[in-house]
Amino acid sequence: MSAAALDPVIHAPDRLQICCMLAGVDTIDFATLRKALNGHLAALKAMIAGVQEG
To answer: What pTM, to 2 d.p., does this model score?
Structure first.
């Protein structure tokens, strides 16, 4: 399934990408996540804040 086929309301592409990256490791650094998201720093900070609150 391509990213274009995902419904962004249900499957936020950045969030799915982070989940996939985290599923394969025990730890990951912030810089690696930021690079994978092509610098979408605001989106990454918002997702991390949501996880920390949960």
So the answer is: 0.55
